[in-house]
Automatic annotation (TrEMBL), chains A, B, C, D:
The Mn(2+) ion enhances activity. Coiled coil: none annotated. Mn(2+) binds at C100, H102, E136, H163. Keywords: Hydrolase, Manganese, Metal-binding. One of its GO terms (molecular function) is N-acetyldiaminopimelate deacetylase activity. This is Amidohydrolase. PANTHER family: METALLOPEPTIDASE, PUTATIVE (AFU_ORTHOLOGUE AFUA_6G09600)-RELATED, PEPTIDASE M20 FAMILY MEMBER. Residues 185-281 form the Peptidase M20 dimerisation domain.
Amino acid sequence: MGIDLEALYIDLHRHPELSFQETRTAGVVTRALSEMGIPFEEGVGRTGVVAVIRNGDGPVVWLRTDMDALPVEERTGLDYASTARGVDPSGAAVPVMHACGHDMHVTALLGALERLAASRAEWSGTVVAVFQPAEEFGAGARAMIADGVLERFPAPDVVLGQHLTPLPAGMIGVRPGTQMSASDGLTVTLHGRGGHGSRPHATIDPITMAAATIMRLQTIVSREVDPRDVAVVTVGSVHAGLKHNIIPAEATLQLSLRYPDDAARDRVLEKVERVVRAEAAASGAEQPPTIVTDHTLPPTINDLAATDRVTTAFRREFGEHAVIDPGMFTGSEDVSWFARDSGAPLVFWFWGGVDPELFARATAAGTVDRDVPTNHSPFFAPVLHPTIERGVEALVVSAREWLG
Amino acid sequence: MGIDLEALYIDLHRHPELSFQETRTAGVVTRALSEMGIPFEEGVGRTGVVAVIRNGDGPVVWLRTDMDALPVEERTGLDYASTARGVDPSGAAVPVMHACGHDMHVTALLGALERLAASRAEWSGTVVAVFQPAEEFGAGARAMIADGVLERFPAPDVVLGQHLTPLPAGMIGVRPGTQMSASDGLTVTLHGRGGHGSRPHATIDPITMAAATIMRLQTIVSREVDPRDVAVVTVGSVHAGLKHNIIPAEATLQLSLRYPDDAARDRVLEKVERVVRAEAAASGAEQPPTIVTDHTLPPTINDLAATDRVTTAFRREFGEHAVIDPGMFTGSEDVSWFARDSGAPLVFWFWGGVDPELFARATAAGTVDRDVPTNHSPFFAPVLHPTIERGVEALVVSAREWLG
Amino acid sequence: MGIDLEALYIDLHRHPELSFQETRTAGVVTRALSEMGIPFEEGVGRTGVVAVIRNGDGPVVWLRTDMDALPVEERTGLDYASTARGVDPSGAAVPVMHACGHDMHVTALLGALERLAASRAEWSGTVVAVFQPAEEFGAGARAMIADGVLERFPAPDVVLGQHLTPLPAGMIGVRPGTQMSASDGLTVTLHGRGGHGSRPHATIDPITMAAATIMRLQTIVSREVDPRDVAVVTVGSVHAGLKHNIIPAEATLQLSLRYPDDAARDRVLEKVERVVRAEAAASGAEQPPTIVTDHTLPPTINDLAATDRVTTAFRREFGEHAVIDPGMFTGSEDVSWFARDSGAPLVFWFWGGVDPELFARATAAGTVDRDVPTNHSPFFAPVLHPTIERGVEALVVSAREWLG
Amino acid sequence: MGIDLEALYIDLHRHPELSFQETRTAGVVTRALSEMGIPFEEGVGRTGVVAVIRNGDGPVVWLRTDMDALPVEERTGLDYASTARGVDPSGAAVPVMHACGHDMHVTALLGALERLAASRAEWSGTVVAVFQPAEEFGAGARAMIADGVLERFPAPDVVLGQHLTPLPAGMIGVRPGTQMSASDGLTVTLHGRGGHGSRPHATIDPITMAAATIMRLQTIVSREVDPRDVAVVTVGSVHAGLKHNIIPAEATLQLSLRYPDDAARDRVLEKVERVVRAEAAASGAEQPPTIVTDHTLPPTINDLAATDRVTTAFRREFGEHAVIDPGMFTGSEDVSWFARDSGAPLVFWFWGGVDPELFARATAAGTVDRDVPTNHSPFFAPVLHPTIERGVEALVVSAREWLG
């Protein structure tokens, strides 16, 4: 009966879309919702979709998924691998891939809605399904909130969400308290002075400026953060120059920063700015660097009581050993904004998609980090089963904790 | 009478074309040649043009210009500034500008041909005018030679050429012996392993690898080359990554290297390769870097006797103080291939295009390198006069040394 | 009655001695033991002292202190500040200071022995007091074991020890499981080729080699260790050269590495070696670097059950809020060898020595790391009271858990 | 007859003395002068000696040598190798070696004085022999001038001097104009904040600050100096820290800078200061670095006319091919102060001390820089003959150009 979730997943995987461009994906979602007879609104927060199942009195449970893909060139070798290309915000043509599993997230949520819609007799309350765009920009949740998602739809009593992760398929990881770091994305433009590659003395070389800056940024984590704290300073991109023999006028860096809380955020941001400015000064730059914050993600903090409820239910349904505390993750999410702005508790968990045998072999060999493709890797490829089923079940089981 | 050289220059300046794409430029050239009644062949070495004036017995003088422009965004503020865009070999859309004066070189050569054609009675011999493409790739001369330019046209008894430079307009700089460095252009691809920006330990970060490599490459010139030797190691571009929070799998550097001779070339290339490989090893790279030589330019060596003839003629015509020995330049040229492969002597000189008052003020203030825009700068803007006239005269005067 | 512990502490503080040179300190200890009538042996593990109080049947409790000071020039401004100088293993004259509180450790142990000796009627069993040398070298515990301390004296049923830390005076910090990191001390010698400072090209400059190595070592913590793991790579010293204008032949680095366990140790050591070797290769070194392990410290792992007993007793005696779990420390200790080699459980705790008002002000201002002098700082200066008293009480209270 | 120059040289070589400590050397000199009956004064500029041969009317010719040795550990393996140790200005015990040939300079000057004294009948005028201390500190000439050497002795009509260099024994290198660079020696102290090696976040690590500074200083020569100019920025020493696990409060660098003239000096000094200050700022240093100029050496500029006279005389006496223009040297000297302050012309030349066969082999193999030990190398070892003889002759021949 119903939706062929495997086919739907493969279709989404073959047709990934970049952030705020998820129009085909939204179409797949709304077509499935229509088939299930679930009412929805499109275009919430640009390309988002919100569906509501009203089923009598009772709590309002938000189930949230994200929908967007990444500018990564897929190398999984799967027969349904993406060959898609897209246009990023700078206008550049880029490869696109569902390298973070959002296609699986959408699939699982549609599967859960189908199960909940089919079992209306067993529960009462309201389910709000939030298909959010642009999680990878850290911008989609804010866009939906700015578009009135918290006012136009029943406000949540609890916000539930889940994310694929490199755990064995079938496993769930969830922890009370801080589950994921806060994060900022910065763009740093270093201003030099261009000229001929053979006459460096007549220029202010932005490429050595960038290299020295990148090397110096390493010392923030290695020397300036308490070794017991969790912090990451990643330079995710560097771009400067067009040709061997022209020294360009500028270099541009994109930084991704991670920290457990807002106090750490302030300290690290101050250090990054200090390093960037001083390295420009060391080069004799005539103009200070430009630093722009592109996105800001809060820490993902799981409500203690609600997480305890969900964890207990998972253990009951999936077995004691299938549910672990994975520790804090250094990744970041914008799901928190829905909980923060509504005051509702949040429970956000991870579910595994890795072939359990591969995982076991890599664990035994101590090579998990090398052999198990992680999120954002061009080799990221969840096994279809039982990943789809466990994703569906986790949403249904947790929602039913509130819905009866 | 004749060609409006100022209008022709402005037209070329407004319509710059990237290397091996000089079709509109070649059209401007061939139209002018047709008007002057000088026979020519098009498409020599892809987009090159060769014109020949046969005028009785006597030496064969080659007058060579280049035609291509650069991926630079013009910022001169001139009312005839370029707003052109082109597509570079990687398929990227880039701004295009005549930031190295090849438009002026073409203009001067057409002006010289007009003068020589109009004064046939005064001299005898053969003039071969070579409008070469793709000097900026270091590839045009070789393309023309591969296309038979040395066999299909009268072989040179002397090869003459000139280049705009940041000297005061009206001045000539020429030196016997090594006038410009040898050069290589390399593309270095550093192979890491991509992943999520929050999990650097599961990746091999090619961006810190690139930064460390760039910093280390500086020590070749600062520590490993005799301070009395002339050598340059420029990283002209660095590109890696698409997004803040994805660590990419690769970083790509384009290097421009300069040295006075082939022995120095061998030493510096060995050092560059050593540094690049070791820095990849320091990162624990699983694959060694890929190093590709994109172009190789010989040193530009002026023939001693021929240069003496030309220098003497210039001093006689333009005045003692208008002709200087500018020292060796660290820029490079592919004009030498015509002389090397034919065995003819080469004389290659520089002529100034800077407003003499600006130059004098900057010299007095010790700020020439800062205030006088150099070749490849987005502010490169020769004054029209007497730059055009001196370029024309220099070609005519030097050619007539051989032609009588 | 008894020992004037304040006077004894001040005397020790004024006369600090470097590792394995603690002969005056051992004299102070043995004089006090003699006065108390407690039998002892000197010269155990070169400069160590072991005292034994036998008091009937019952468990054997080891109470361990360290005795050595550091090559730090005291800047506390105290009227009893050290002005001592010593000779380090290289033969260099260095300032010496009790910058890590071992003078306070000795004082507290002598105070505890006095209390235990005076209250023999209340308990039964054996107390072994171990005054260990050379903790700062990570070598004293091994020296005592090699000298038979585990065989020549009653073997421990439990090993207890304590360390001053920048907590408010009166507070105790103790945690079950891993309390302090494992650590290694390495000496890395980079081999270049010396020569005249004006002719770098005729040398292989070990100073740029060292600088590049130090910068690259930062990337181990910033890029290669899981951000959630605790690891430190400190270069504690760098020495090369004697004069401005001579490029030396060698540079020497001393590294201090920290990690939570032996698996992490193996990974980090491998990375350090990889970086050091590759950076030498990047310099074209003709000889690979020499890497010597100077000391190896195991992790300090508190026995779960024994720590629970001690923590409960501390809370009962000192108040709930005076006893905290301080988290894992990145410092290291060699006390573990006594427990590891004897198989006895270990409990090792920290006690505070900071003026509580200063601490409160700094905490409120968020400037603890800046304003509260930490161990090894030239400003390290515990307040005398109640630091001495709490140190004595903590030893007595914990020992009595076993002795009744 | 006379002095056994070989024995005298070997004696000096075995007993090298550091700058301003040349008392034994001065004793050897004065003993020889006494034996030759030449009047002298001792203690001029602390440890210098000045001898005067008055021989009737005529020009006053100054012949200058230096006397000091270097803190280098000799590794020549010669049976007369130095095993001496000295105490440097910081109080450290250091090895001492005549690694720059000043022992040979003294020997040659004594030999020349003996020849001139013995041939008084053949010439007339005055010879002033200046045995200068502390050339290696760049301080000896100024000390002698401050002590009145230009007033207390006949002022020069010409200043002549010579230096050993890695040319084949028998050869002379001399060039008109700039023969050696100007130079400064700086001491840079970087101020951090010390602490425990396991708690880098509570410190400001001066060792990463130093490493980043050293790497950045490389870009001055590689990016900011015209590749055609001669400039050197050498970090000759770096010192910080005493122990693996203490992060020190400071790091100290000694820099040796070289440039052809005073304008370049100003530019490079400004860049060095800019880099040093900015790198401290990048570390968040609470105190700016301290930069002290330890010595300043002028460029060594040979008077054109006087150099022509000397060169012609050398060619006549030693053969055309034995006298070359070696180009500008990047080493520096303080001999110029005598000429600058007196207004007399200077001629300063180099003479070779390398076994001609070794030199020829290394030249053929292209390994001169590697195989021929250069000044300041621990392997620097001139062959005794004809080095001694050519040094004596060069002084006599050049002096006789003025003395007749």
